[in-house]
Design a protein that fits this description.
Layout (H helix, E strand, L loop, with lengths): L1 E4 L2 E4 L2 E2 H5 L6 E5 H14 L5 E6 L6 H9 L3 E4 L2 H10 L6 E3 L6 H10 L3 E4 L2 H14 L3 E6 L25 H11 L5 E7 L10 H17 L6 E3 L17 H7 L1 H7 L2 E4 L3 H4 L3 E12 L4 E5 L8 H5 L5 E3 L7 E6 L8 E8 L7 E4 L20 E6 L2 E6 L4 H5 L7
Parallel strand pairs: 4-19, 5-6, 5-12, 6-7, 7-8, 8-9, 9-10, 10-11, 11-12, 14-16
Antiparallel strand pairs: 1-2, 2-3, 4-13, 13-14, 13-18, 15-18, 16-17, 19-20
The protein binds ligand LLP.
EC number: 4.1.1.20
Catalytic activity: meso-2,6-diaminopimelate + H(+) = L-lysine + CO2
Family: Belongs to the Orn/Lys/Arg decarboxylase class-II family. LysA subfamily.
């Protein structure tokens, strides 16, 4: 997707200079071809399995992209009222919607009971009790899945590990058994599935193998109680560092797929990053390069407001200057916000760009825009989709009206 041609960077064979013409920077740009390739890779791994992909909307909530995914027969995993409304607007069928997250409010649960999603994933005993109150009063059935916390170490950044017993998510297996016994013949709560998501940005197969092996017998034992599907979560990592360390698909196919096939139930796979992460870049402009006696700072118009992963997780995002240089220097790439943590890269080897050159920040398709903010009253960037050689604006850049629309001036 990204390569230099005649010393200028090209994305899907179009120069970034050309792509950026008449566009305010920074902006997000997604490649439809790359999304399709990623989906195809997943399909190849799951060939022969009865499965369904549920896209983790939290990784990217652009409605046009959701629509493209829907057209590829992909459903959505949602975690909030906002994502729920987005899914409805795009027209996802209730059967294509899985509801995740903890702390679901009574109002939200009640709306979900009307909508009848494929499953509400239950995160705790307290949550199923909450849901019980609602369905008993309304005398309406609802399908749920019980989220298990299998207590396995996903070997990833601690902020994005979810399946350890010290993490806030899911229910330990013993308590889950108790819940399933209790609600097994409930008139309105129908336990149709089990769910386990152990973390995000995993680059090894072993944690999945451990988690599914640990819960395998439990899954089989629930078949006679009417279990219909197992939601195996998401979390497949991507090669942010561009050093060939990508998710080992072949190994997954050899070691995990047989376990899943053996369960012989419908499998739901909740991927976000693997589908959209490397399909998106953040195109920024270099304002200038600041030299100090200690360091060189490349100052861009992208910031922690447009991409927070480097500041929040020390996340690495590879960067390409618009023009290929012969030498590199160690630099910090920083944004313009009033915060030391507004740093996109530290001590990075980069060929020094000129002011006004573009700088392309890679692998920003997942948890990029969706985690952006208005810090310092920054405008969120525009998003564009490159499809069939055409570039289309799929969300405009915010302007001051978006930021002040709550403010009524009564003069
Ligand atoms: N399913 C559940 C229940 C999840 O909580 C998540 C992500 C996913 C699926 C999708 O995971 P993925 O396939 O995208 O790894 N903001 C962090 C990532 C947080 C992930 C939260 N849950 C980041 O920027 O790295």
């Amino acid at each position: 997707m990204i390569q230099y041609k005649n010393k200028e960077l090209h994305l899907d064979n179009i120069s970034v200079g050309q792509l950026s013409k008449d566009k305010a920077t920074p902006f997000y740009l997604y490649s439809f071809d790359q999304i399709k390739k990623n989906v195809k890779m997943v399909q190849e791994v799951f060939e022969g399995v009865n499965y369904h992909i549920s896209f983790a909307t939290k990784s990217n909530n652009n409605l046009y992209l959701l629509e493209e995914l829907k057209n590829m027969n992909i459903g959505v995993d949602i975690v909030s009222k906002g994502e729920f409304e987005a899914a409805k607007l795009v027209g996802f069928h209730n059967d294509e919607v899985i509801v995740n997250g903890n702390g679901k409010t009574l109002e939200f649960l009640s709306e979900l009971v009307d909508f009848q999603p494929k499953a509400i994933n239950i995160d705790s005993k307290e949550e199923i009790e909450r849901l019980e109150q609602i369905v008993n009063t309304r005398q309406k059935e609802v399908s749920v899945a019980i989220r298990i916390n299998p207590d396995v170490d996903p070997v990833t950044h601690p902020y994005i590990s979810t399946g350890l017993k010290k993490n806030k998510f899911g229910i330990d297996m013993d308590s889950a058994k108790g819940i399933i016994e209790k609600y097994n013949s409930h008139p309105y709560i129908k336990i149709k599935g089990l769910h386990l998501h152990i973390g995000s940005q995993l680059l090894s197969v072993s944690p999945y193998e451990d988690a599914y092996q640990k819960t395998h017998e439990f899954m089989l034992s629930l078949k006679e109680h009417g279990l219909e599907f197992v939601n195996i979560g998401g979390g497949w990592g991507i090669d942010y560092e561009k050093n060939g360390n990508s998710f080992p698909l072949d190994e997954y196919k050899d070691r995990v797929i047989p376990i899943l096939k053996n369960i012989n139930l419908e499998i739901i796979l909740e991927l976000g990053r693997f589908i959209i992460g490397n399909a998106g870049v953040l195109v920024s402009k270099v304002e200038y390069v600041k030299e100090t006696p200690y360091k060189t700072f490349v100052v861009t118009d992208a910031s922690m407001a447009s991409l927070i992963r480097p500041s929040l997780y020390n996340g690495y995002h590879h960067m390409y200057p618009q023009f290929e240089g012969d030498n590199t220097e160690k630099v910090d790439v920083v944004g313009p916000l009033c915060e030391t943590g507004d740093r996109l890269a530290e001590d990075r080897d980069l060929s020094i760009p000129n002011h006004d050159d573009l700088l392309v920040i890679c692998d920003a398709g997942a948890y990029g825009y969706s985690m952006s903010s208005n810090y310092n009253f920054s405008f969120r960037p525009a998003e564009y989709l490159l499809k069939d050689g055409e570039i289309k604006e799929i969300r405009p850049r915010e302007d001051i009206n978006d930021l002040v629309k709550y403010y009524k001036v009564n003069k």
